[in-house]
Amino acid sequence: MKRKLNNDDVPTAIDTSTGDSSTNTFSALGLDARLLLAVAKENFSNPTLVQSKAIPLALEGKDILARSKTGSGKTAAYILPILHSILHKKSSKSSKATAALILVPTRELAQQVSKAVSTFSAFCSKDVRTVNLTQKIPEAVQRTLLAESPDIVVATPARAAQNLQNSALSVDTLAYLVIDEADIVLSYGYDDDLQAIAKAVPKGVQTFLMSATLTTEVTTLKGLFCRDPAILDFQENPNDGGGVSQYVVQCAEDDKFLLAYVIFKLKLIKGKCIIFVGDIDRCYRLKLFFEQFGIKSCVLNSELPVNSRIHVVEEFNKNIYDIIIASDEHEVLDTRQAKPSIGTKADDIEPDVMPVTKEDAIDLPTTQVNGHVAETQILHGEVQPADTRKQQAKNGKKSKEYGVSRGIDFQNVACVLNFDLPTSSRSYTHRIGRTARAGKTGMALSFVVPAGLYHKHRSTTFPTAEHDEEVAEKIISHQQKKGKEVKPYHFDMKQVDAFRYRMNDALRAVTRIAIREARTRELRQELLKSEKLKRHFEENPEDLHHLRHDGELRAARIQPHLRHVPEYLMPGNGKTGIAGEDIGFVGLRKTTDNPIRRARMQNRLKGKGKKPAGRKMDPLKTFNAKGRGK
């Protein structure tokens, strides 16, 4: 028996016969050796707090209701014990049976969970079969996959209920039921589907409810599915080394675009950024605005094909893209209207600014055809008339399997920019949860429109901004209760105003027609990439890396001069004249500034340096009004 100093420098005894120097290891949890190999392959050294507490309870067969912040490892906390139990049962009998049903609110999260299952079952893939019901595959193929009784089924509640109703999915042998992001499943309108699932699931099924917050929705699901669950509530510690630095900027409606231009053109924000806007049109307005200045960005919204959305997130996580402009339509629907109660689907609420879409049919803006306004849509790559779309909309459901502010695993996000402030403190918390994950630091910057400045600039007005001040007060109060501070931040608007005429030029080019055409063009391109090239990418996966989503959409008027910032626009003391330095990720100087290049630039400004050889040219004799040299 040896002795070892713990974190408090107190000697503790450890057993060297096991080979473990600490009980806080995955091997100490008693997991299958094949799972431990997969964990080691992913370089997971020690389990997180939620994993170390939840996995032993799960292996004992207890229901679990776990609350832990985003990025704390909740997915592995339920996948690992489920895989362990499946492998243990298969060692004694080899019968095929669906053992686990994992319910998630969005398709993106379903893809993410399926990938995590594949990762942790890398060394036992022949023994564990998984089906993701949210994938766009023919119904006949889906029924065939379910007929083979996969061990794990991942689905949204709507897809699971649909397959239960048509008898394609059998849950007679179900042993585990997981509801991930339980606090938002009901707000997505899945309550009727969950009621149907609860009636079909046999009694005695072990249940996992995983959530980032404990709300009345979670309490409802607890009563519906759980039997005396073990409640694991891990409060976030503000002094754990991570956290979000939060700032609020009071500005006019058009100043949002001005500040966004200055921030990204002058590279005041270092690292990757997610910009949240209120609806899909707002996505394209901001993207087209950025294109005027040569600022590249990706769009992420519910209108895009699911394969494109997943690919955008994956490429963003690989540092291919730095800026994602994400719409938050469900947040707008859920908070501007009355909050749906149990038994009320999101489909029954009249939308305010959220576009209505089907799961497999994507609405396009109205287009002008031979002088008449006609609505069209793309359905699996084909354009269909408006009357067909309306008939399908009567029989179909609105798309509710999309979500950006929650669930999706965005990695290494330096900043979340609330271009349009959310309409509730809860939504704000969900949005800023995309940064400062897994103990890292991050920054949240929110634009707030004062009530006196609302609707002063009609072309940039957004309806929810009317109540920005009220919402900001609630956000600040809510964060203070959690021991966090939301600080005001002030840009030097005198310095920023030098860029205003350029901002106005760019905004004038981003007309409604330009937005409509860009939205249509982007959708057609993404459908082509998503559907037509799917087989090619399956055969040539390396080509997928060359598929980009941040290409230019082109506004109505191209202005190349806006891409360059002339020196006379810069304040005399550099970027520090616009904003202070010490605000987290909003750095104001390039750390990689080349000193040789800077010296050459200074020499040019002083009239020094190399001069062109030969005789001096008279500028009046060489002047050409067409801009061409003689």
TrEMBL record:
Subcellular location: Nucleus
Annotated Helicase ATP-binding domain residues: 55-232
Bias kind Basic residues: ranges: 604-614
Catalysis performed (reactions): ATP + H2O = ADP + phosphate + H(+)
Chain ranges of the Helicase C-terminal domain: 243-494
EC code(s) of this entry: 3.6.4.13
Pfam families hit by this protein: DEAD (PF00270), Helicase_C (PF00271)
Domain DEAD-box RNA helicase Q: 24-52
Region of interest (Disordered), ranges: 604-630
Short motif Q motif, span: 24-52
Keyword terms of this UniProt record: ATP-binding, Helicase, Hydrolase, Nucleotide-binding, Nucleus, Ribosome biogenesis, RNA-binding
Residue spans crossing the bilayer: none
Family: Belongs to the DEAD box helicase family. DDX56/DBP9 subfamily.
Chain's role: ATP-binding RNA helicase involved in the biogenesis of 60S ribosomal subunits and is required for the normal formation of 25S and 5.8S rRNAs.
Name of this protein: RNA helicase
The organism of origin for this protein: Stereocaulon virgatum
Taxonomic lineage of the native organism: Eukaryota, Fungi, Dikarya, Ascomycota, Pezizomycotina
